[in-house]
Design a protein that fits this description.
Distance between the termini: 17 Å
Cofactor: Mg(2+)
Number of strands: 9
CATH architecture: 3-Layer(aba) Sandwich
EC number: 2.4.2.8
Shape: globular
InterPro entries: HGPRT (IPR050408), Hxn_phspho_trans (IPR005904), PRTase-like (IPR029057), PRTase_dom (IPR000836)
Protein name: Hypoxanthine phosphoribosyltransferase
GO cellular component, one term: cytosol
CATH class: Alpha Beta
Radius of gyration: 16 Å
Oligomer: single chain
Number of helices: 4
Length: 178
């Protein structure tokens, strides 16, 4: 897998330190609120796992599978819910944990959907942000890193279900996905 990586954008140690910092901020924000932390599968699972291990407050977790990409490198423009939450969000403080915000389409869809379900609050924590790719206005309250408009993999992010287990964020060589 390493030979498929053009550059390492964010090394393992830098990831760990930033996740700890985010967890500290979130612990302060959500103390006494018992948030429901929602992991957007599959890409955010490693990030969320490390994030909540470093949060020192009561919280609950749930999982959602949403797709707007399939095995493509660009969004299809259509958001599909593959797995909805198991818990009710009515009257809850929600924290959506996402791996990367690209176009913003999926996230804006989720935020609207959750607000329509009568939540107390909905905030977003994304490991990565690609602001120059944004086509939809969406608030990201907590961001780990802004990244350039390149195809990134590792630490949960994939291409065709591969590379998720890399311990860093790297740029995939173009010949792999073109």
């Amino acid at each position: 897998m390493i030979e498929d990586i053009k550059d390492v954008l964010i090394d393992e140690m830098t990831l760990k330190e930033r996740v700890k910092d985010l967890a500290k901020e979130l612990s302060e924000e959500y103390k006494d609120k018992n948030p429901l932390v929602i992991c957007v599968l599959k890409g955010a699972v490693l990030f969320m796992s490390d994030l909540i291990k470093n949060m020192d407050i009561p919280l609950e977790i749930d999982f959602m599978a949403v797709s707007s990409y399939g095995n493509e490198t660009r969004t299809s423009g259509e958001v599909r819910i593959m797995k909805d939450l198991d818990k009710s969000v009515d009257g809850r403080h929600l924290l959506i944990v996402e791996d990367i915000v690209d176009s913003g389409l999926t996230l804006s869809y989720l935020v609207k959907m959750f607000k329509d379900r009568h939540t107390k609050s909905v905030k977003v924590c994304s490991l990565l942000d690609k602001p120059e790719r944004r086509t939809t206005n969406v608030d990201i309250h907590y961001v780990g890193f802004a990244v350039p408009d390149e195809f990134v993999v590792g630490y949960g992010l994939d291409f065709a279900e591969k590379y998720r287990n890399l311990p860093f964020i790297g740029v995939l060589k173009e010949e792999i996905y073109l």
